[in-house]
Amino acid sequence: MSASEVKTIRVYQCRQILCPALEPRFIGFLHTHLRIRDEEPVLYGFADSASLSLFSMLTTVSGVGPRMALALLSSMNSSQLQTAIVTGDITTLSSAPGVGNRTASRIVLDLKGKLDVAESDEVAGVIGDVDSQVISALTALGYSLAEAKFAAGAPAVTAETEVDDRIRVALQQFATRS
User: Fold this and answer.
1) What domains lie within the chain, and their CATH numbers?
2) Which has the least CB within 10 A, 70, 98, 140, 168?
3) How many CB atoms lie within 10 A of CB 172?
4) Closest Cα to residue 32, out of 4, 16, 15, 55?
5) What are the E-state strand segments in the chain?
6) Helix crossing, 66-75 with 78-87: angle to 10°?
7) Alpha-carbon distance 93 to 107, whole Å?
């Protein structure tokens, strides 16, 4: 591909999560969704697979495009969004920029049966506690908050992985990138 053939790719990110993780020379993992719009590739980036999955589900709702789905995920975390959908909280959903009452109602109607908020909250609570312990340990060792957050969400670890093992995996990742 010659220099005149190089195309730019637009990358949109969920404002809440990714900005700190995109520091120069920072190596990490990014969950992406690729769309081709007007023959141009567009990437949507997320820090975790739950947000990516929710983004994909939101874009299946009639009248909800990628930008509106991203606005919803940027105005609240994925757990809050799932809870709002399952409980039918139109007010919370319509508080996102560009989302009106009719669109919020349509989101609830289309996705309410597809989400299990009790399971997602239970898992998020366990992961959140473990993540906060891992992040605290890594920042105490001198790593930046962005590096610690990204390492805590690495795909090499699962919800069942113990805190010690997650810290060990994070330190190994830091060692291999140096």
Assistant:
1) 3-115 (1.10.150.20), 119-177 (no CATH)
2) 140
3) 13
4) 55
5) 10-13, 31-37, 40-46
6) 100
7) 9
